[in-house]
Amino acid sequence: MTIIKTIICALLIPLILSGCGVLAAPCRIASAGLKMVPLIGHIAAAPTDVCAAVIDP
After folding, report:
1. Which Pfam families does this entry report, sorted A to Z (predicted)?
2. Is residue 29, in this structure, part of any structural domain at all?
3. Is residue 33 domain-resident?
4. Among 23, 30, 51, 54, which one is least packed by beta carbons within 10 Å?
């Protein structure tokens, strides 16, 4: 019975957190850090911006 509960919890957690800003936080933090670099920061941050947009539209 405990194994079944564990499996159900493991499957429900991603469903509950889908589209959650908490999951996009690492992408947004990396993007902010990259944008501080002069001249190429915004270009270098483009992939992390896309990552955050996909996770939390």
Report:
1. DUF6726
2. yes
3. yes
4. 54
